[in-house]
């Protein structure tokens, strides 16, 4: 039988590839983004309580009511915008499902979706599966800034959606108020839907603030905002995320969601609802990861790698042009095989695999592992 692939050019993703290579070579693994330390025992206890407490049948299609109420309160307190728990919030299987379902809900064959590169890897295949066309725009320089004129001229009558991501994976950059106002101005009076990937919303450093789309009323009115408890509470394996949007957009989203998964893991949702009763659990996350970033950067001060400190996320880019001319994929592979240290080459996320000679390192690791990585980086 001949199989007619809808994604002929998609292979195994970079996180799986580098993770597998890291395991094969017993390398210190700073490649895929996940913490190597456990979640708060209080959260684990709440999960155990929920399992034993009878939350083992289907959750409501939109998600557990108590969790949706807590999310609504959190957004209201942080971003001064109210999303109604009944009609404007859906709990999803990680942000990945929220993104996939949002794209599947709105993208038809021929629709254009503007994606800023480097881009997290789950956006483009989803657009392609539903017949949409990605319009990629490369962010410029080692600061990965957007040229707003380029952005404006990329918009056409076929533009259906724009996807943004702040704090940004893999760049570690964040957008400020001016960026948001620019975007708001450009999208004003269009029918363009904004998909805002804010999974690292609580991981912002150096006293700066996360600029959620929710804070900008005109933007919020056209936006689906996605977030992830995996990132925020060190439980990437739970795959619980959520998205919020104005009622009319969420109504369409839920039409697809109910046939996509219907609902997601119920006991985990109940545990998260209780855990969210203490806002410190997410409000202290930025400080926690800022200390990790500083610990890692201080430990490699003497190395030949160059860096701009990450402003958010748990990723740090290191530039190696003083060390070798190898492409970033070649160098990343050699680092694993010869030095036993795994990272992610940034070019895989860039337009036409632009190679800025940078590798991405995940610093969501114990200080012992960060020390091991630093010792290797200082030797290179
Ligand atoms: N968006 C970005 C930018 C991410 O880095 C990730 C995963 N790390 C996701 C979405 C997916 O989140 P989840 O694991 O909750 O599906
Ligand atoms: N978001 C994680 C990262 O950027 C990876 C998640 C995945 O493997 N799909 O490393």
UniProtKB/TrEMBL annotation:
A Pfam family reported for this protein in Swiss-Prot or TrEMBL: Aminotran_1_2
GO cellular component term of the entry, any: cytoplasm
Gene3D superfamilies for the chain: Aspartate Aminotransferase, domain 1 (3.90.1150.10), Type I PLP-dependent aspartate aminotransferase-like (Major domain) (3.40.640.10)
Highest taxon in the source lineage: Bacteria
InterPro entries assigned to the protein according to its UniProt record, in alphabetical order: Aminotransferase_I/II_large, Kynurenine-oxoglutarate_AT, PyrdxlP-dep_Trfase, PyrdxlP-dep_Trfase_major, PyrdxlP-dep_Trfase_small
Keyword terms, alphabetized: Aminotransferase, Pyridoxal phosphate, Transferase
GO function terms (MF aspect): kynurenine-oxoglutarate transaminase activity; pyridoxal phosphate binding
Cofactor(s) needed for function: pyridoxal 5'-phosphate
Domain Aminotransferase class I/classII large positions: 27-376
Family affiliation: Belongs to the class-I pyridoxal-phosphate-dependent aminotransferase family.
Protein name: Methionine aminotransferase
Organism: Flagellimonas aquimarina
């Amino acid at each position: 039988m001949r199989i007619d692939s809808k994604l002929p050019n998609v292979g195994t993703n970079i996180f799986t590839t580098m993770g597998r290579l890291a395991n094969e070579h017993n390398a210190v693994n700073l490649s895929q983004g996940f913490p190597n330390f456990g979640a708060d025992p209080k959260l684990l206890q709440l999960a155990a309580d929920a399992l034993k407490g009878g939350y083992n049948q289907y959750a409501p299609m939109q998600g557990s009511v108590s969790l949706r109420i807590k999310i609504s309160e959190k957004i209201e307190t942080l971003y001064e915008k109210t999303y109604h728990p009944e009609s404007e919030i859906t709990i999803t299987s990680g942000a990945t499902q929220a993104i996939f379902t949002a794209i599947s809900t709105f993208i038809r064959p021929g629709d254009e979706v503007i994606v800023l590169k480097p881009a997290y890897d789950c956006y483009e295949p989803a657009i392609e599966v539903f017949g949409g066309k990605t319009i990629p725009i490369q962010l410029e320089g080692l600061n990965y800034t957007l040229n707003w004129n380029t952005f404006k001229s990329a918009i056409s009558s076929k533009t259906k959606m724009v996807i943004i991501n702040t704090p940004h994976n893999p760049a570690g950059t964040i957008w400020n108020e001016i960026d948001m106002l620019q975007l708001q101005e450009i999208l004003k009076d269009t029918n363009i839907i904004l998909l805002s990937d804010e999974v690292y919303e609580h991981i912002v450093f150096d006293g700066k603030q996360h600029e959620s789309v929710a804070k900008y009323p005109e933007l919020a009115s056209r936006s689906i905002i996605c977030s992830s408890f995996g990132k925020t509470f060190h439980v990437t394996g739970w795959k619980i995320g959520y998205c919020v949007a104005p009622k009319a957009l969420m109504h369409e989203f839920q039409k697809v969601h109910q046939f996509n998964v219907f609902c997601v893991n119920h006991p985990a949702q109940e545990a998260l609802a209780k855990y969210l009763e203490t806002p410190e659990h997410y409000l202290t996350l930025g400080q926690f990861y800022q200390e990790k970033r500083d610990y890692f950067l201080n430990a490699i001060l003497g190395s030949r790698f160059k860096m701009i400190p990450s402003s958010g996320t748990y990723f740090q880019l290191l530039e190696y042009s003083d060390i070798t001319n190898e492409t970033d994929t070649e160098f990343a592979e050699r680092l694993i095989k010869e030095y036993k240290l795994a990272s992610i080459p940034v070019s895989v996320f860039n337009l036409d695999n632009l190679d800025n000679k940078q590798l991405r390192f995940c610093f969501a690791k114990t200080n012992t592992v960060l020390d091991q990585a630093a010792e290797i980086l200082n030797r290179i």
